[in-house]
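re: that chain from earlier
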Amino acid sequence: MELNITTLAERPELAGALDGMPDTWPEFVLEDIVGWANFARIAVEFPQYVLVATDPEGAVVARAYSVPFVLDAPGRGELPVGGWDRMLLWAFADLRRGRTPDTVGAIEITVATGHQGKGISGRMLAAMRDNARQHGFREVVAPVRPSGKHLKSGLPMEEYARLTRADDGLPEDPWLRVHARAGGTVDSVATVSMTVSGSLAQWREWTGLPFDTDGPVEVPGALVPVHCALAHGYAVYVEPNVWVRHRL
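^ sequence. v structure.
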């Protein structure tokens, strides 16, 4: 499929279409408080790190968000167990304080509904790597949300991330496999990469499930079970991701 991949800084007129692009994200994932408060700021404050892909007709078919941040700093150094949330907070804290970033972090690569399975995600990952390189960075890090993990929600992420195929030794997970083929290597597990908490009424609205029993609840699209505290009227989802490093 012929694609035109540019940054949002180069084509700011696509901001609306980028935001309105249809996707398949589970509704509850969008309720992460850190993401809810900061994600929209990326297109405004880091447009040179936002990639948009259009087809020959000009329709937006994929997007890729990344942010620059400081990893080599006191109290940091290692990729954080806080994963996606922590990296996003670091990026905007560094911007506010005028720090010079040394690393690019992948926030999201999403292909529009109806265009999956065409190899577009791999091309967006390659474009993100190239964009970081052009800005003078030597590494891209990604708190990867493995695309097949929801089918094995009871398996610890540490074990899942190490599953490989017998024929070629590549990761069993399709999205981790794309990263591996692009040159990425698994670093660690971000055990508390994203947290979504809400009342039982909210979880029922987000998922259509009853949430009427205590303990773990299997939710479609969730990478691990959601913990339901019936007597206290709330449920919490703590999502682990897999840190992948891409040396440029």
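The chain has a mean pLDDT of 97.
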